[in-house]
Amino acid sequence: MLEAKLQEAGTLKKLLDSIKELVTDANFECNEEAIVLQAMDNSHVALVSVKFSAAAFKRYRCDRPMPLGVNLTSLNKVLRCAKDDDICTLKAADEADVLNLVYEAKNSDRIAKYDMKLMDIDADTLQIPDTEYDARVTLPSSEFTRIVRDLSQLGESVRIEVSKEGVRFASDGEAANGSVLLRQSDGALISGTTIRPKSDGKEGGEDGGDEAEGSSSAKKEKAKVKKEKGDEDVDMSHEKDDNEDEEEEEFKPVENDEEGEEEQENEEDEEEEDGGSKKRKKKANGTSKPAKKPKTAKSKGKATEEDESATDVIIEMNQHVCLTFSLKYLVNFSKSATLSNKVQLMMSNDVPLLVSYDFNQGYIRYYLAPKIGED
Amino acid sequence: MLEAKLQEAGTLKKLLDSIKELVTDANFECNEEAIVLQAMDNSHVALVSVKFSAAAFKRYRCDRPMPLGVNLTSLNKVLRCAKDDDICTLKAADEADVLNLVYEAKNSDRIAKYDMKLMDIDADTLQIPDTEYDARVTLPSSEFTRIVRDLSQLGESVRIEVSKEGVRFASDGEAANGSVLLRQSDGALISGTTIRPKSDGKEGGEDGGDEAEGSSSAKKEKAKVKKEKGDEDVDMSHEKDDNEDEEEEEFKPVENDEEGEEEQENEEDEEEEDGGSKKRKKKANGTSKPAKKPKTAKSKGKATEEDESATDVIIEMNQHVCLTFSLKYLVNFSKSATLSNKVQLMMSNDVPLLVSYDFNQGYIRYYLAPKIGED
DNA sequence: CACGTTGGGT
DNA sequence: ACCCAACGTG
């Protein structure tokens, strides 16, 4: 039995706006710790990973793991019936084939209930293909949106290059070539730290915990990218491996047979890999945030909103990286800017890019394999 | 070698927004004095003339005259990658086939570079078909925008009539007729002066100078309009003169073989023709600006921004004029309202209308032949 | 169903 | 001037 009470329905609405064009059906995997969605996009090139930790909810209860197969188009329709500031409660009985949604206006003068049919979806649980990166760029999400939107006017793909100089986005097109160099903010070039997605959307939060996809056994086998058929995106699917002539490469989706064995393991991972280089700057919280620019809180009204350094460009880099990606997908990813004012790009050469928007107690992450043969 | 540094990319962006629907390809003629663009619109009915004086730029250098053949659609794409307040530098090497654009964020933390391919464009240098008019109406550009937009909903064409009473815009349509009378502001009816476009966009500036299109020999041969095929616009092109059955009339494009003979001539014209009527109110700066409404400077930060009398309607008239024009084109012209808060309409009977938006050190001007047979 | 364009509001 | 929403088109 699931019951999850979200303070603001708007969060879920924005999330669906972000991914509804990328994914049409997906399982919301609910368990005691979190609600997780992992799915490949419709063209099987990108991978979307969403997580709402239990702590993201005002109230959360899930007795046993249950997958809720949801048609996102339907869910979107139902969510559009909620106002952004409605309190939204999701309920599903064990083995239920419907999801109940209750919207309560904040002043309680309105209560709406919706029942949405669930469906069975083949749960090809996808192995998230990476755990550690050579570079992380943290930048304002609006800046990222702007850059990929601009460059998408010129060409099909963008070359992202991270160096000590900063991060460069470059695209070549028929009529024009474009290149945007973003210099890191003062003092915001960091190297020697372990770069990996934080376990949770919580900024500077505790690092261990309920990570679902980090698998210690997968720690060093970063690249699952096949390098054939160069110069194209990589298909992260496995389903159509042999019978289609798509130009895309593919990830090897790995059966996630270690799920659940992982809790409280990340913190130890970092400790053991941290030797021999600069330690992270502040206390060991895994986020490596420099102490510069102690911005005045932006008075956004929401105490939970992380509001520091949102305008900074932070570059963490252990190695120069240069990768090429399809702009079409990045433009799609950038729609999640409504969910966070910052975005992180994590990259290693020849490894899928991780684009992560972290919010209060959760995140939305996108994985996109690089085009190869031109990076 | 060209290098032109513009303080605000927004100026160029607005310019391109203005003309991109009218012209698709054009040469930017760069020389020591200015950058000039002259082109006919795609249907060869209207003529666009743009000038940026060297002084319009923060830095300007052009060693030798060079035409830059630009596809405006491409340039528009590239310019959309600039923020309005970016500093924009245009560079082109001699004989280059690319134009380099550099956008610097004001705080310099972002530098974007774009290379746009240039193209060869037949430089049918167009003789701007007039130098002196019987009437000039200066009005707020927003007012002009509103009038032509309103009337365009009623009919295809507008009759513009300038008299001592004011200026009347009238359109007859299937469902309704409309007429807008604009009275000149107090004391803003001027007659007996020479009415011609100023040599430069600079308000109240020196009148002689680097005029490219003024030709003394053409001064009195105003009308080059052929009066056949009545009731239609006039094609300003010469290229398709004989082999097409367009309904439009045509200007005679004249080879501009007297370019440069004109300097410092306008001021003398004014002196000798100035007698016998109200003098212009302020000092003889050629703009005939009344002293009314000594507006408080609008604190726009730019000392060069002309900000007085923007709400006045000024009519200079030596002869009653009544002309009919296609509203479709006027609506298009009026998009340049973003570039200046004032617009000037210069008219003589049976001669193309000149619509001029003057800005700091440049202008954009449109020429449109009247429909004949109904004026 | 998605994208691009146009119009209206802040 | 900028951002958001709605409409129409591909």
UniProtKB/TrEMBL annotation, chains A, B:
Gene Ontology cellular component annotations, sorted alphabetically: PCNA complex
Keyword vocabulary terms for this entry: DNA replication, DNA-binding, Nucleus
InterPro entries: DNA_clamp_sf (IPR046938), Pr_cel_nuc_antig (IPR000730), Pr_cel_nuc_antig_C (IPR022649), Pr_cel_nuc_antig_CS (IPR022659), Pr_cel_nuc_antig_N (IPR022648)
Region (Disordered): 191-308
Domain Proliferating cell nuclear antigen PCNA N-terminal: 1-125
GO molecular function: DNA binding; DNA polymerase processivity factor activity
KW Metal-binding (keyword) present: no
Basic residues bias (residue ranges): 278-301
Proliferating cell nuclear antigen PCNA C-terminal domain ranges (all copies): 128-185, 304-371
Gene Ontology biological-process annotations: leading strand elongation; mismatch repair; regulation of DNA replication; translesion synthesis
Acidic residues: bias regions: 242-274
Compartments where found: Nucleus
General function of this protein: This protein is an auxiliary protein of DNA polymerase delta and is involved in the control of eukaryotic DNA replication by increasing the polymerase's processivity during elongation of the leading strand.
Sequence similarity: Belongs to the PCNA family.
Record NCBIfam families: pcna
The protein's name in its UniProt record: DNA sliding clamp PCNA
Natural source organism: Gymnopilus junonius (Spectacular rustgill mushroom)
Lineage of producing organism: Eukaryota, Fungi, Dikarya, Basidiomycota, Agaricomycotina
